[in-house]
Amino acid sequence: MNIDAIRAAQTTLVGLLDPTPAWGAPALDEVTGARVVLKHEEVQPTGAFKVRGGLNLLAGMSAAERAAGVVSASTGNHGQSLAYAARRFGARCRIVLPEPANPTKLRALRGWGAELVLRGTTMEQASAHAVELAERDGARFVHPANEPALVAGVGSLYLELLTSHPDLDYVVVPVGGGSGAAAACLVAASVAPRCRVIAVQARASRAAHDSWRAGSPVSRPNRTTVEGLAIGSGYPSTQAVLREHLADFVLVDDEQVRVAQLLLLTHAHTMAEGAGAASLAGLLALGAQPGAQLAGARVGVIVTGGNASPAELASVLGTSQVTAA
Prior knowledge:
By secondary structure, the chain is α/β, with parallel strands linked by helices. It is 48% helix and 14% strand. Strand 3, helix 5 and strand 4 form a beta-alpha-beta unit. Helix 1 crosses helix 8, helix 9 runs parallel beside helix 11 and helix 12 packs across helix 13.
C-alpha cells in the first residue's frame, strides 16, 4: 500500500461519491484547547467513511469476481460499505454479524440488499464463519482491515482533508482494525509531512494499541461497547504502516466516548456513533494530560460515522459529564 494507490482510489471514486465537508467547530475549540477541524464522514450515503473502501474494492473486481460475490464479517459499517458497493456494481453480498447486532445497522444492511447471517458473539467467531462461507461457495472473502483496496479507498478522505487543510498539525483517528489510521499515516507522510497522526482505541479492546507498542500483532480481550472499535487482534498489514509512521496512540474509556458523542451533538450539531466520536474523546484525553502537547494546535478530528442505535443515543443523552460551553 502506498500513496499512489490512494491517489488512484480517489480518482476511482470521482462520480461515485462527493467529497465530504471539513469545517471548524469554535465551540469545541473552547472545550479542547485546540483549533478543531471536523471531517464529516457521517454524511456519507451509508453514514460512515468505510463506503469509500467498499466502492474502491468492488470497482477493481472483474465481472466474474463480482458474479461470485463477496462475503465478510462486520458489526455494521464495513458491511454497509460492501453492501452499498455490491448494489452499485450488481454483485451478491453476504455479511456475517455477531450477536447481539445493532438493529439500526441490520436495517441499513438489508436496505442495501445484503444477505445477513448472525453467528457467534464476537467478531472473531463471525469472521471465521464468513471465511467458511467464502471457501465453500467460491466467493471473495473481504477482510475488514487486511485489504489494500479498502485502505486505499479510505485514504481518499485524508487526501481531501489534508489538501483542503494543509496546515493541520495533527490528525486524530479512531482505530478498530487500523485501516483508517494506516491510510492517514500514508497520506500525511506524502502530502503534509509536518502533520502528525494520533490513533485512538477503546481501553476495553486495546489489541491494536498493544500491538503497536509491542512491535508485532497481539490479541487482547475485546470488551468495549463501542461497536466500531470492538476488535480483539492486531492486523499485520495495518500494524506495519502504523509502526513506521504513527506519532502516538491513546486509549479511552467507553464513558469518555459517550461524553465526546454528547459534545459533538451539543457543540457541533453533529450526531456521531461511538467510533465516530472516539477521535474527539482521544483529543480530550490528551488535553487532560500535564503539559498537553495539542494546546493551541490545529487538529483534524475524523467523525467516522453516525450510525448510532436508539439505545446508544438514549445512553448518550443521559450522559452528564460534559463541560458547559
